[in-house]
Amino acid sequence: MPLGRSAKPLPRQNTMRRSIASLAARLMAEDGIADYALAKRKAARQLGAPDSEALPNNAEIETELRTYLALYQGEEQRERLRQLRAAALAAMGLLADYKPYLTGSVLDGTAGRHASIELEIFCESAKEVEIFLLNQRIDFSQLEPQRGVQGAPQVRLQFELDAAPVTLCIFDTLAERVKRRSLLRNKARARADAVAALMQTNA
Length: 203
Known about the structure:
- This protein is of the alpha+beta class and 203 residues long.
- It has 8 helices and 5 strands.
- Helix 1 (11-31) crosses helix 2 (36-46).
């Protein structure tokens, strides 16, 4: 092979890449896996793909996920998305003093049957938020910390509001500036007014 040229993926690798993306999308839609990396690793294992096999990127999986949802869940998924966005607005209203962001599948429109509303807030004390929720008579549980994950929140709380699951990621106030400059800066986030606008346009 001439120097300076990278090898093109083999046809077999391309076929396996598409198969992994398709299965990962199904796992996310049907089994409630929210993490793209976990879904692609699980799909690769199930398909017997060797470690050296090229894995699909998140964009490829998202394309397959949107196709799967449209084909197999259709109106059910659209109605579920409307319900989750309405519940997200209610949760954001409840937490308005903390200026929450909505992120994840409820924002980007890929929320399936098992999706959780993902909210991010930035404050000086996670304990303050826990006390606030207790005063609102909202039962919550604390999720396992995301060890080794860059930009992970200090605390993740899970609770239900309007029969919808909410995952609340709590970051230190200084983290908001850091996140803008970090690798996470391209992660889509939206304030309540933008979520309300999405509901008006059914996007």
